[in-house]
Amino acid sequence: MTAQLIDGNALSRQLRTQVAQRTTALKSRGITPGLAVVLVGNNPASQVYVRNKVKACEDVGFHSVLEQYDATMTEAQLLARVDALNNDPGIHGILVQLPLPKHIADHKVIEAISPQKDVDGFHVASAGALMVGEVGFKACTPYGCMKMLESIGMQDLKGKHAVVIGRSNIVGKPMAMMLLAANATVTVCHSGTKDLAAMTRQADIVVAAVGKRNVLTADMVKPGAVVIDVGMNRNDEGKLCGDVDFDGVRQVAGWITPVPGGVGPMTITMLLVNTLEAAERL
Ligand code: GUN
Questions:
Q1: CA atoms of 220 and 232, how far apart (whole Å)
Q2: Predicted TM-score (pTM) of this structure
Q3: Which of 14, 75, 261, 262 fits a 20 to 30 Å CA distance from 240?
Q4: Is 210 in the pocket of ligand 1 (CB under 6 A)?
């Protein structure tokens, strides 16, 4: 079997067209969705990510501001900026790019963002809302993975076993919650889980979100399974690759997301969706 691709670029284009249309409608009522992106320090990867986020906002007609600060910014100064953005009526979403410099406590800054503007979905209020099925913002990467599943007709996952590899606060844990909410049976693993292959071989859906190459190889996948690759790594030639051994796994899986062109563009797309909804909820 050769797996079918779930094309994150194509799905993103579709969804972003819808976002642009809803933005036009909102603007006709005098509201322009606004996103503030805050970057502290000069992490080169973060600089690329935030530029892409701001560009994506401009493409769908949002107002967006990029605030860049020196790595010497204090925690108190950053908290003061977040407070100002919380009170800025032109800003509907606030994103503080992680990681922050070591002298600043990530969670303290995230908890300072108003939950109504937490378009990253990282605030404890957002995570809690997801857990109890209340309205809140969903973390963008797992939300994008759920949209990819939906795009292949996997909306209700009753009777399906999903295995998530990776337990980060920004992907693994919220991913597990979203899969549960869609009625899947969910197993959350660590890359070091004993006999990980025995777990993944039972899975109808595998989500790999570890940040390490070749976490999932062909022998670990049930024929026909759906494989979602959240990883972003570089191979020996310096080329972008995911956590999944793509060439091997695609021979076994039913569906697979590529890297690049899979989950990556979906993360930014869901950020746009969340920001639009923040503006629409006003
Ligand atoms: N760093 C890596 N991914 C993300 C993300 O989705 N949001 C933010 N704010 N920082 C990140």
A1: 20
A2: 0.97
A3: 14
A4: no
